[in-house]
Amino acid sequence: MKTFTAIWLGQVVSLLGSAMTWFAFTIWAWQKTGEATALSTISFFVFLPTVLFTPIAGTLVDRWNRKLVMMLSDLASALGTLGALILFLTESLQIWHIYFIGLLAGFFTAFQYPAYTAAVSTMLPKEQYARAEGMLGLTTALSGILAPVFAASLLGRIGITGIMVIDLLTFLAAFGTLWWARVPQPIATDVGRASHGSLWQETRFGFRYIRERTSLRALTILFMAANVFLAIGATLMAPLILAGTGNSESALATVQSLGAVGGVVGGGLLSVWGGPRRRIHSVLLGGAGACLLGILWLGLSRAILFWAIGSFFFSFFEPFVEGGNLAIWQSKVEADVQGRVFAARHLLVQVPYLFGIFISGFIAEAWNIPNVLALAGVCGLLVFLTGSIFRNVRSVESVLPDM
Question: What CATH number does residue 281 fall under?
Answer without folding.
Answer: 1.20.1250.20
